[in-house]
Amino acid sequence: MPVHRLTPLLLCLLPMWRILTPVSSHPQHSRCQLIQRTALCNNGKLSFVPTELPDNIEELQLNYNHIHTLHSILLYPSIKTLSLACNSLEKLESNTFQYFSKFLDSLNLANNNLHIGYQESSQALKTLPRIRALDLSENKLDDEMAATLLQNLTSLEYLNLSGNLLQRLDETSFRDLHKLKELDLQRNIMFEIDGAFDSNPKLQRLNLAFNYLPCLIDFHMTQLVVLNASHNFIEWFISTQDLNDTFQLETLDLSDNKLLFFPFLPNQSHLRNLYLSHNSIRFYEHLTDNTTFLNLTTTVEFYNLKTYMSNVTAKLWDESLHGDISSLEILDLRGNQVEYFPRGFIHKMPALSRLRMCTNCLETLNLTSEQFSGSLYELDFSNNRLNQIVADENTLTTFDNLTYLNLSLNDLEWLPSGLFSSLPSLRSVDLSYNNIDICPPDKAETSTNNISLCVDWKNVISLRQLYLKGCNLERIPSSAFAGLPLTHLELSDNPGLIAQESIQSLSRTLQHLGLGNTHIQDFDFSHFQSLKSLNISRNSLDHLPPSLLNLHLKVLDVRDNRLSNIPSGHAKTLAPKLHTVFLTGNPFNCCQTEWFRTFETTKTINMVGQSDIECKDLFQTTHRVEHFQSFLCLEESAESVFWYILLIVPFSFLGISVIVLLTFKPKILKKSIKKKYLKPTSY
Ligand SMILES: *[C@@H]1O[C@H](CO)[C@@H](O)[C@H](O)[C@H]1NC(C)=O
Ligand SMILES: *[C@@H]1O[C@H](CO)[C@@H](O)[C@H](O)[C@H]1NC(C)=O
Ligand SMILES: *[C@@H]1O[C@H](CO)[C@@H](O)[C@H](O)[C@H]1NC(C)=O
Ligand SMILES: *[C@@H]1O[C@H](CO)[C@@H](O)[C@H](O)[C@H]1NC(C)=O
Ligand SMILES: *[C@@H]1O[C@H](CO)[C@@H](O)[C@H](O)[C@H]1NC(C)=O
Ligand SMILES: *[C@@H]1O[C@H](CO)[C@@H](O)[C@H](O)[C@H]1NC(C)=O
Ligand SMILES: *[C@@H]1O[C@H](CO)[C@@H](O)[C@H](O)[C@H]1NC(C)=O
Ligand SMILES: *[C@@H]1O[C@H](CO)[C@@H](O)[C@H](O)[C@H]1NC(C)=O
Ligand SMILES: *[C@@H]1O[C@H](CO)[C@@H](O)[C@H](O)[C@H]1NC(C)=O
Ligand SMILES: *[C@@H]1O[C@H](CO)[C@@H](O)[C@H](O)[C@H]1NC(C)=O
Ligand SMILES: *[C@@H]1O[C@H](CO)[C@@H](O)[C@H](O)[C@H]1NC(C)=O
Ligand SMILES: *[C@@H]1O[C@H](CO)[C@@H](O)[C@H](O)[C@H]1NC(C)=O
Predict the structure, then answer these.
(1) Atom 14, ligand 3: which residue's CA is nearest?
(2) What is the pTM of this model?
(3) N or C terminus: fewer CB in 10 A for the chain?
(4) Using CA atoms, how far apart are residues 277 and 383, in angstroms rounded to an integer?
């Protein structure tokens, strides 16, 4: 329908319409909510733009409707922000915006079908001289469609093209977007970018995550502040090395790629956050000064679709050319293949506060020679092959901001003596899965050459969280935790652990206690009045420790024990307090499941793996508690009735006569036996 003829008609009808519609009742408003000059009409099953809104509204949200045409939008000439995400738009008629194009500042067209009418839509967008933000994500747009839609949008500052079908970007892609500041190109199928951003000198934030890019070379976008190229197939990141400018780059995310080398960063930059997790990065310094390897290539050649070849000479083996890392605060190298740090590498980062090295191949660590910065706050060396960590006394005093230390999953046997007592800010230490011993009380530390075979935490009053899972601990000395204000203690996976006495000193402060798989039996929890979370899974417990009932537990893990029942009194006490409970892996009795109903009907509790909680019936057949019908506690067949009878006879005071009577009336029998059987036994 030609819009320009419809418009005057609509505009004439509008006053009449408003007079005819009493102000007090707004039946058509029902799907919209008005807040000052904002109309929220999301999720309203609307097929058209509503016509009865005040004509001075400035923001109109029509997300999640079935709108496929924008005709009546011209009723609202003051709109600045228009949001039409998740509708059925196939095109914008070329004159859609002609009456109010002066104001429109932000337009959200995400999740529509603009690939169908992109040419006409492009005409409509051209009439918006002031548009600053445009969201075209999830519209099945390919390279040509996007380029067409973006023609002449010279005022655009924020553009979202994520979730489309872009493959290759070149200098024509964003040619007119001279003011562009932020561009989201996530989740396309891009494999090549060739000079695409040369016309966008103001671009500061660029997201290229989840594409198919094999490399980023000749990186020279000096004005860019955030570059996210995670989840691609990038093997090389090489910045232009001979630029004299300082790059503005602060955040670079190259995680989940295929990097073999530490990225070749700009020579001068303000880079603060560098995310490189899940690549194959290692250092090759040991090859540099090895004459037998001098024949290794030093240049890499890159070809692109136009067979234009660029030689990037990257001095591959010279580790002194990583670029400027002097402003780095976060370095995330989780999941790489780092065996060592090149000489002076750590020292080049005087502002480093978080170093994440989880899952690499480090074998030794000499804190003295690495010269870490004093601003270090988080250090994660978990899951490496560390056998020892060395540091002299002076070095340890520089770590006065170190707060989180994770050394779990190594082969640590040796630690610098006095390590923990030298770290005044230490809050959390994870030493799980090492061969660590706790120092006996008499000989505080067995130290030779600043190295200690056992650990202790004397006077570490900042310490709150201590993880000692799977350390082959047997008996913890009774004074081991004396004076520590621990809130979190994890001792799981130390089978046969004797800890009751040592833990008592933490009874006031402890909020989480992990004793899973420690073979504990009769642990008295009654003094642990602050305890909120308790893990006693995998301990062969056949009943819940009664001392739990007086605590205000929120999380309880009793998986994989031998519980057959939770007395209903206990369940009723626990249910209102617990938020999360783990119960799977216990051989519950199918005919004593009142506790299950109690937990199930308590809305505030989350029974994790509820449908996997199993029980056994009289015949040791396993059922899911959730689906078990309690009448199945009896079998219908006459044989099993007899079986039940035989079982019950010794306990029944009703005598043989009743049974005889009931055998002839099986229905009554079922009922009466069921009742007896279901009666909860209390422990
Ligand atoms: C729109 O852009 C094209 C090329 O991108 C240019 O030739 C044309 O002059 C521009 N039109 C206006 C109105 O700016
Ligand atoms: C772009 O759109 C996608 C999907 O609609 C959304 O997830 C993403 O947050 C948007 N990007 C920005 C920078 O707003
Ligand atoms: C990069 O993008 C991915 C995907 O959107 C996101 O998960 C990640 O947090 C981003 N990285 C940064 C540093 O913001
Ligand atoms: C790289 O930076 C260093 C120090 O900032 C400077 O001495 C050197 O000349 C720079 N190299 C180039 C090619 O700009
Ligand atoms: C870099 O810039 C400085 C001054 O800004 C200048 O002195 C120097 O010669 C330049 N170096 C190169 C390699 O262009
Ligand atoms: C040179 O490489 C060989 C073979 O990998 C190695 O055994 C040797 O230690 C290296 N020499 C130096 C000085 O790194
Ligand atoms: C290095 O290259 C030279 C000439 O190409 C060759 O003669 C020599 O054997 C090579 N050395 C090694 C260690 O591969
Ligand atoms: C790249 O380098 C190789 C070897 O150094 C040379 O043969 C080739 O001509 C160079 N190509 C270009 C485009 O510079
Ligand atoms: C650790 O590094 C320091 C300083 O470089 C050095 O003196 C010390 O011998 C090293 N210790 C070990 C065990 O390598
Ligand atoms: C310690 O680390 C925290 C977190 O990174 C930081 O905010 C604080 O400024 C640091 N303090 C010192 C003295 O470096
Ligand atoms: C320490 O690292 C391990 C392995 O990366 C991880 O599972 C654990 O949660 C970390 N500990 C803490 C306290 O964050
Ligand atoms: C409780 O401890 C066991 C044994 O270490 C562990 O497998 C389980 O994940 C822990 N439960 C919770 C909720 O963390």
Answers:
(1) 228
(2) 0.83
(3) N
(4) 14
